[in-house]
Amino acid sequence: MWEPTTNIGRLRSRSYGALGDLPGTAMATGRRLLLTDLLLVLFGISSWLAVNGIWVELPLLVAALPEGWTLPSYLSVIVQLANVGPLLYTLLRYRLLRRSTRLDSLVVYGMLVTGAAACFLSALFWQRTSTVAGVEHSTALFVLLFFIALVDCTSSVVYVPFTARFGSRYLVSYMVGEGLSGLLPSLVALAQGVGGNAECVNSSAGINGTFLTPAPLKPRFPVAGFFYFLFAMMALSCVAFALLLHLPRLEASRERGSPPSSDASDASPRGGSPTRLYAVEAPAPAPAAPVWRWRSLLPLLVLQALISLLANGFLPSVQSYSVLPYGNLAFHLVATLSLMANPAACLLLFLLPVRRAAVAAGCALLGGLCAVYLLLTAAESPAPPLQGTAAGEALVVLGWVLFVGLTTYAKVGIAGLLRPWGGSALFWYGAATQAGSLVGAVAAFLAVNVFNLFTGYYPC
After folding, report:
1. Which run of H or of E encompasses 130?
2. CA quadruple 282, 283, 287, 292: dihedral positive or negative?
3. pLDDT of 333 above 50
4. Which of 190, 301, 340, 378 pairs as cysteine with 322 (C-beta 3.0–4.6 A)?
5. DSSP-derived secondary structure letter, 135
6. Residues 284, 292 contacting (CB under 8 angstroms)
7. From CA 89, how far away is CA 324, in angstroms rounded?
């Protein structure tokens, strides 16, 4: 493992300004600015807030919109179409934004304003429908969701590199905010009365008598109120981002965390080959420097993509098949505790940071074992193992909590390992995250809607 203290006195400040908290640097001896931590948390909340909010609001949306229970499949396709955002940003980054941090900041401002506006308009028009090819569809929600997802998907390749302007000690603060982007909407939705199965009531069936049907949901506040909450949080994140850029009190952390130069000759001691994440027998010759760099970074990026495939793409798409057969209590516990495990794992990194790639890989492997059990419960729906027993409920809840916690710890740990390479490595970290998420979501869509590999659980 490469130690950042090696020849630290010979590292040039312009190239290693992003390594703000390395031993021997000014950031290492400076005072931590808690205000920077708070603002980065608030900024990180906007990363996936709106998309997560719409997904936890599905029980009410499904009951009110003409698509019914086919609505999630439409939303999944729209979210995947929004992955054009990261692709367009990749082209812009290498053609226009590579040398301009000001334009980069304008992109983030545009994303935050677009996301806030889409949430506000969703509160006003989410029920508006129109007829397309003779079928009534929720076109207003679909269009607004596309812009919401465009912002959230692009955040994976824009927001994380922005944190390279600050010391690496602040990276976890952003990740905590990213975890809260899923937790906060879930808690608000649970307070609203969303989640689990509806109660079964008798329904008249004419000459055939009566049968049980799910009762209509009666939330404590309407769907429009939930969208206004999302708008308020997006606006708060926009204010936090503006303060991160312009508040004079944060000048010290910004200066010591400025993005490193993308020039390979500027990213190395004495102008030689770039410092590597892993030690080798002897320094590589200057012409071979890019090979050594990618040998170090590529395994971490592949691991990040595989983790994202499961954690962000496939398993969330089949969560209902995995949990709902065990009952309402298990569903509520998974919805809350698993999302709480995300920021909890980020906070744990303050005490136990990941310093070796083997640690991140080990956590990912343990999370993969949990994923195997969760996939088994989803595949066996509507009669998964130990259904109707306290042990079955406890195992499925524990499995989801451990899976989210372990994979989050591994993902943030990988970001920490890539952090010494600056904004470029963190950009590819975000790209690997989004690519894995896209593959996992598409695979889940095909498994659920095309090949019908999973069977839903219906309480009535």
Report:
1. strand 130-132
2. positive
3. yes
4. 378
5. E
6. yes
7. 38
Distance (Å, whole) CA 324 – CA 403: 18
d(CA 235, CA 216) in angstroms, rounded, equals 33
Instruction: For 221-263, list the strands marked E by DSSP.
Output: none
| Cα–Cα nearest to 58, from 305, 319, 293, 243 | 319
Q: Which helix (H) or strand (E) holds 370?
A: helix 357-379
What's the confidence (pLDDT) of residue 433?
Answer: 87
Tokens encoding 115: 């996301």
Angle between helices 139-162 and 84-92 (to 10 degrees): 40
- Element spanning 360, H or E: helix 357-379
* Token pair in block for residue 411: 């993902």
Which parts of 175-225 are beta strand (E)? 200-204, 210-214
Between 218 and 185, whose confidence is greater?
A: 185
In single-letter form, the type of residue at position 385 comes to P
CA distance 437 to 431: 10
Whole-model pTM: value is 0.67
The Cα-based distances of 320 to 62, 68, 183, 278 in angstroms read: 14, 16, 18, 41
Q: What is the distance between the alpha carbons of residues 435 and 441, in angstroms, rounded to a whole number? A: 10
Q: Is the pLDDT of residue 4 over 70?
A: no
For range 371-400, the mean pLDDT: 93
Residue 380 has pLDDT above 90, yes or no: yes
| Distance from C-alpha of 360 to C-alpha of 313, rounded to nearest angstrom | 20
Q: Are 166 and 40 in contact (CB under 8 A)?
A: yes
Residue 281 burial by Cβ neighbours in a 10 Å radius (0-12, 13-18, 19+): exposed
Give CA–CA dist 423/419, Å, rounded.
8
C-alpha span between 415 and 430 (Å, rounded): 9
Dist CA 54 CA 62 (whole Å): 11
Residue type, 437: S
Q: What is the DSSP letter of 133?
A: T
DSSP state of 450: I
Q: Return the number of other C-beta atoms located less than 10 Å from residue 72's C-beta.
A: 18
What is d(CA 64, CA 285) in angstroms, rounded to the nearest whole number? 65
Q: Please, which residues have CB within 8 angstroms of residue 26's CB and are 6 or more apart in sequence?
A: 20, 256
| Residue 239 Cα to chain centre, angstroms | 21
Beta bridge partners of 130: 137
